[in-house]
Design brief:
alpha/beta; TIM Barrel; 10-stranded mixed β-sheet; binds ligand PBG
Length: about 325
């Protein structure tokens, strides 16, 4: 009778054997590539903390989306950098807004590529918060729902295949679902940022989108990183309100919640490998401390192993290339 250790190691002997018994597969089709689309012509502006990610004017975004599609990436997720911001964030629901224009242009050029529109006001508000402000500076939940629903309709009209509310207002999935159904978009799925934590790992994104709150923070609507049961309650509510896919964000410090939400909701689950997680790997690789390719593929595989069907990651194009 061999030692049990030997029994476990027997299947690790060759690459082919390891492949045969691998429990988790990572493919390009599982990945969603986030892009920052900006107003302007011929603009490709690097983001300091995110080497390899740029703010792109529409023609560049169309080319970049095409490159992602070519590599087999499952979808792109669009964030808008508007020309101007205001109190309410009206750029979000402008039919000629930057995400709407980019969506139309990308769908025209690449009709098969899935385009997901991020649905939030913070990139469009002058104060950087994700909703309408009361005089005391707190966000007014119910007044915000109306603006989010308007934004969803405008994005659906532009041709977005899926809407992804990232604001964390209570009741927004239901409000958006109702508005979409009423306006003839009953077939558009909702990818809900269900368990979105008030995280330090969004720093580079806020630099990219110029969406850092002008005062205060987002702890009034995003979740406390210490809370796991609450994440489940959030996910269940979103499912009840009509979410088609639920998301956990960020990914790496929250792998336990990806697993719990997957097990307990049995819904398709997405995980967002956020800007700060990307920046850490890039910085460590640039310093010679990490093998970037190995670190990225390990990270993305393990997010899948934790229970994510879909991984949203700025590494999507690189990973897709490495997986070929
Ligand atoms: C906005 C939004 C944020 C991210 C996606 N949508 C930032 C925030 O809450 O400030 C972060 C994504 C990332 O860090 O990559 N609601």
């Amino acid at each position: 009778m061999p030692f049990p250790q030997t029994r476990l190691r027997r299947l690790r002997a060759t690459r082919a054997l390891r492949g045969l018994v691998r429990e988790t597969r990572l493919t390009a089709a599982d990945l969603v590539y986030p892009m920052f689309v900006a107003h302007g012509v011929d603009r490709r502006e690097p983001i300091d903390a995110m080497p390899g990610v740029d703010r792109l004017s529409i023609a560049h975004a169309v080319a970049e989306a095409g490159a992602a599609e070519e590599l087999g990436v499952g979808a792109v997720l669009l964030f808008g950098i508007p020309a101007a911001k205001d109190e309410e964030g009206s750029g979000a629901w402008d039919d000629e807004g930057v995400v709407q224009l980019a969506t139309r242009a990308i769908k025209d050029a690449h009709p098969e590529l899935i385009v997901i529109a991020d649905l939030c006001l913070c990139e469009y508000t002058s104060h950087g918060h994700c909703g309408v402000l009361r005089p005391d500076g707190t966000v007014e939940n119910d007044a915000t729902l109306e603006l989010l629903a308007r934004t969803a309709i405008s994005q659906a009209r532009a041709g977005a295949d899926m809407l992804a509310p990232s604001d964390m207002m209570d009741g927004r999935v239901g409000a958006i679902r109702a508005a979409l159904d009423e306006d003839g978009y009953a077939e558009k799925p909702i990818l809900a940022y269900s368990a979105k934590f008030a995280s330090a790992f969004y720093g580079p994104f806020r630099e990219a989108a110029g969406s850092a709150p002008a005062f205060g923070d987002r702890r009034g609507y995003q979740m406390d990183p210490a809370n796991g049961n609450e994440a489940l309650r959030e996910a269940r509510l979103d499912v009840e309100e009509g979410a088609d896919i639920v998301m956990v964000k960020p990914a790496l410090a929250y792998l336990d919640l990806i697993r719990r939400i997957k097990d307990e909701t049995a819904m398709p689950v997405a995980a967002y490998n956020v800007s700060g997680e990307y920046a850490m790997v890039k910085a460590a690789a640039a310093a010679g401390a990490l093998d970037e390719r190995a670190a990225v593929l390990e990270t993305l595989t393990c997010i899948r192993r934790a229970g994510a069907d879909i991984v949203i990651t700025y590494h999507a194009k690189d990973a897709a290339r490495w997986l070929q």
